[in-house]
Amino acid sequence: MNLYILLLISLILLFVAGYAFYVTFKKYEEDDDFTGGINTFTFIEFLFGILILISEKFFQEKYHVVIFKILSFLFGIFILGLTVLLWILFN
After folding, report:
1. What percentage of the chain exceeds 90 in pLDDT?
2. Which residue pairs, CB below 8 angstroms and at least 24 apart, start in 48-56?
3. So what's the pLDDT on residue 87?
4. What is the pTM of this model?
5. Are 18 and 63 in contact (CB under 8 A)?
6. Is the pLDDT confidence value at 23 over 70?
7. Which of 19, 25, 49, 89 has its CA 20 to 30 A from that of 39?
8. 3-state secondary structure the chain
9. In this model, does residue 39 exceed pLDDT 80?
């Protein structure tokens, strides 16, 4: 794989992982929707919308924020691991 394509894919994946960690460690406010108001990159809104839907539907109301933050942390770790795996395989 071309090094420039690998760098581009890595930057995109690291952006998604960084946003997942940002959502995880951000202080919760009552009116948070956890999408950050990003209107141009709706794929991230879709991913975190799915994570918040899972946490709201399957867990009690007092736990769904904690579960959502745990899921977003695990998602960030997964994406970070995928980025490292890409570098190991294609470099």
Report:
1. 36
2. 48/20, 48/23, 48/72, 51/75
3. 93
4. 0.80
5. no
6. yes
7. 25
8. CCHHHHHHHHHHHHHHHHHHHHHHHCCCCCCCCCCCCCCCCHHHHHHHHHHHHHHHHHCCCCCHHHHHHHHHHHHHHHHHHHHHHHHHHHC
9. no
